[in-house]
Specification:
Blueprint lengths: L14 H26 L19 H16 L5 H12 L7 H22 L22 E5 L4 E5 L6 E3 L16 E4 L7 E6 L5 E6 L8 H7 L1 H19 L1
Parallel strand pairs: 1-6
Antiparallel strand pairs: 1-2, 2-3, 4-5, 5-6
C-alpha cells in the first residue's frame, strides 16, 4: 500500500504546519503544470494497455525538474541534482528512498505529472469495477477507498495520481480477500467517517472514507490529518503477529 507516511512527513511541527506545507506544495505542482506542462506534455506517451502512464516511464528530466521545485518550496533547500538523479533511478528499479520528505515530494511530483497527462490527453480508461488493486493509470498499488453518497458506492482512489474507479463493495482492496473473518475495521471517535481496514490474509491496510458522514474538501489532506489511525493500525497488526508467534 502506498501509505501516507510516504507522502508528507509532518514530524513534530504540528497539524497546522503540516497543512500549510501540504497546501504550498500542492500549489507548486499546479504552478508547474501551468508553466511547464506545455513543454513536457509531448514527451509523455500513453501505453496501449494499463498502466497507461507507468511511473518509471515518465520523462526523467520532467520528474527531476518538478521534484526539485517541490524541495525548494518545501524547505528552501536545493538538493544536489546528481543525488536526485541517482535516487530517481533507484526508485525506478524498485529500491527504497530512505529520506521520507524526499520520497513524499517525489510522489507529489509523479502524481502531478500523471494527472497533467491524464487531463491534457483526455484518455478514456472506462469505469468497470476492477478486482486488481493496481491503478490502471500509473500502476501504483493500493490507495484509499471512498464511499460515495447517497448509497455508499465504493471507489478506489490512487494514492499517487488520484484516479478513482469503482471497486467491489466489500473485501480487501489489496489482495481481494472477501473473508469477513480476516477483515478488521479500526475507528476512532475523533475521526468520524474514517476507517482503517486491516486484512489478516495479506497483512495490509488501507483507509476508507465514508463521504456520507465526512465532508472533505481535499481527500489527501484528510488522509494526512488522520495519520494517527495509520499508526494505530500498524500497532494493532504488530500485536496480532506477536500473539500468533507466542
Amino acid at each position: 500500500m502506498n501509505s501516507i507516511e510516504q507522502k508528507l512527513d509532518a514530524g513534530d511541527t504540528g497539524l497546522e504546519a503540516a497543512k500549510e506545507t501540504y497546501l504550498r506544495l500542492k500549489q507548486e505542482v499546479s504552478s508547474w503544470q501551468e508553466e511547464r506542462g506545455p513543454v513536457w506534455i509531448g514527451s509523455i506517451h500513453q501505453a496501449a494497455a494499463p498502466p497507461y502512464y507507468s511511473l518509471p516511464d515518465l520523462p526523467e528530466e520532467a520528474v527531476l525538474e518538478l521534484w526539485q521545485r517541490l524541495n525548494l518550496a518545501g524547505d528552501g533547500i536545493e538538493v544536489s541534482p546528481e543525488i536526485l538523479r541517482q535516487l530517481w533511478r533507484e526508485f525506478r528499479q524498485g529500491r527504497p528512498i530512505p529520506e521520507t520528505r524526499l520520497l513524499s515530494r517525489l510522489h507529489l511530483a509523479l502524481g502531478g505529472i500523471v494527472q497533467m497527462a491524464r487531463e491534457s490527453l483526455a484518455p478514456d480508461f472506462g469505469q468497470d469495477e476492477q478486482s486488481d488493486g493496481r491503478c490502471p493509470v500509473c500502476g501504483e498499488e493500493g490507495g484509499m477507498a471512498l464511499l460515495l453518497p447517497p448509497v455508499g458506492k465504493r471507489y478506489l482512489r490512487c494514492g499517487i495520481c488520484g484516479y478513482e474507479r469503482p471497486v467491489r463493495a466489500t473485501g480487501c482492496l489489496l489482495c481481494g480477500s472477501e473473508d469477513p473473518r480476516q477483515q478488521t475495521y479500526l475507528e476512532a471517535p475523533e475521526y468520524p467517517g474514517v476507517t482503517v481496514a486491516v486484512c489478516r490474509d495479506c497483512g495490509g491496510r488501507f483507509k476508507e472514507f465514508d463521504l456520507r458522514r465526512l465532508v472533505a474538501e481535499d481527500i489527501m489532506w484528510e488522509d494526512i490529518r488522520t495519520l494517527p489511525l495509520n499508526y494505530a493500525a500498524a500497532k494493532w497488526l504488530a500485536e496480532e503477529r506477536k500473539e500468533k508467534t507466542v
